[in-house]
Amino acid sequence: MYKTIDRIMLFIKHLGISVRQFDISIGASNGYTLRMNKNRASVGSDVIENISRVHPSVNVEWLITGRGSMIRDSYSDEMNLDVLNSFSEDEIEKMVEQKVVEKEKQELKKMLREVIHEVELTNASLNK
Q1: For the structural domain made of 1-87, what CATH number should be given?
Q2: How far from the centroid of its chain's Cα atoms is residue 16's Cα?
Q3: Where do the structural domains in the chain lie, given as residue ranges?
Q4: Tens digit of pLDDT at every position of the chain (128 positions)
Q5: Distances in Å between the alpha carbon of 78 and those of 15, 27, 75, 82?
Q6: CA quadruple 62, 67, 70, 73: dihedral positive or negative?
């Protein structure tokens, strides 16, 4: 059975940020979320309130109970300036850079698979 901490870990993955960055964003101590996950511990209401305040897109009912979708239906895609202002410019740049690097890696892996496939096809036609 999934616990709130499991759903928090899923939400962090959805956000595409590190657990440390998430802890910083919600004002939790260093390593809080990983400790809670490792110990299969319950998450306090104050932490859930902070998550909801800092990440208004999360569906709190889903976070607590697992019912519904992860992202609130009524959430708009507009940037929440309060959330944005909770990060330094350097932190935002690092997050963007991390996303760009990950996308580039995915594209390179895809191109490599395509090249390997083409080489295999060429080898197969030459061996006929």
Answers
A1: 1.10.260
A2: 3
A3: 1-87, 88-128
A4: 689 999 999 999 999 999 999 999 999 988 999 999 999 999 989 999 999 999 988 999 999 999 988 988 765 444 455 566 667 777 877 887 888 888 888 889 999 999 999 999 999 888 87
A5: 15, 23, 9, 12
A6: negative
